[in-house]
Please model this.
Amino acid sequence: MALRCGAAYLDALRDEREVWYRGHRVADVTAEPGLARGAHTLADFLDRQGSAEHLQTLSFSEAPDGERFAMSFLMPRESGDVRRRGRAFYEWARWSNGMFGRTPDYKNASMTAFAGAADYLADDGHSAQFADNMREYYQTIRHRDLVLTHTLVNPQFNHALAREGRSSPEVALRIEKETDAGVVVSGARLLATLGPHADEIEVFPSTVLKSAPENIPYAIAFAIPVATPGLKLLCRDSYDHGKSGFDAPLASRFEEMDSVVLFDRVLVPWERVFMLKNPALCNRAFAETNAVVHMMHQVACGKLAKAEFIVGLLCAMAHASGKDSDMNVKVQIAEAMTTAETIRALLFAAEAQPEQDRWGMWHPQRRPLDTSRNLFPKLYPRLIELVQLLGSSSLMATPCEADFDNDIGSEVERYFQLTNLGSRDRVALFRLAHDVAISGFGGRQVLYERFFFGPQNLLASVYYDLYPRDEMMERVHEMLGTL
Model:
């Protein structure tokens, strides 16, 4: 199949998956209010990927006139491949201006990295089975152009155990038994973004598991179809309330549902198991394969698109109201501009200095991307605050589309115009700003950015550990030696 069209994707979602939303089991996620429009947005993205306009940027072929695959599945065997993938990541992000954060290229990038470094998975004594499983799975998902979600975190109700690096046996996903057919698992996992809209779910450990016997049952990595018997997705409330694209320009299109994943004696076939009962191997997997670097690359491209969009929104708001010559407004917008340019510079630095790992894969330099993922969780809430400060009461004084077509429509047209913008366009602009800055959709975006890669103190600690501190301290000692 290779590049898949939107219709084929939507048809594949009409299976036996068990999705629970607002107290009932969903019969069809492509038709369920609150879920359907996100699925159709993703279908539109897949159609764009295969269009003549985007085909060369967003796909590749391994032979002249050969089958084409999504660019996010490209194994970067040459340094220039890093930039090629970056252009594709950015283009995908541009379609939603970063507001649909979990597009398929995110997981494609990580699974491609794992497949390229599959020999790492054979290090735990299971011969080459798990490495072969990963290579075969990569071929499956790229040829079928599958949409993946993932879930990494075990829920905790005993935080004392969490502080000790241990899982809560009452709720955490765990291995129940091994059979000739595969591994049986039960428990819960957080938090599968795009879960109801995915073909398959990838389950990997993300938190550090202590290499103690009691943690062995939690050390497993696998991937299975969302429609696997015994697997359930429990969705949060949707932020898509059925409003028009005018009234909710973001929530009506870019609702990427988050879900808790419940496993009730789920059988994982042996050919879908990648790591098993080896906490140390699981703990190092993302770093040793450089999957985390490839994921950060996709994320940085998305954050750049998102920051640029907020800059554009602020400029449009200021121009519409005639405030764009005001010094204080310029200062606020310039702050947002420096955020966008900081992310751009970090992304450029990462792509301009690619490195080749021991698996023969090229990847962007890690430190600029690590810098970006430490900065953006702090910078994005400030971007939203700037929208709130500039918009102020105009973010609340936002009539709906229907108000232009009723008995007081002429008054709405009269009283809601601005210096440089007519009433209807003004309301559309500020409803967009409302969706970004103060709606439920916008609030979820802020929370999402705060914790995208984990708690900020954990990210900072990792950054500190990886930083070349000895080199910096040596300069201090050299200076002291010259006094």
Observations:
- The chain has two domains: 6-286, 290-481.
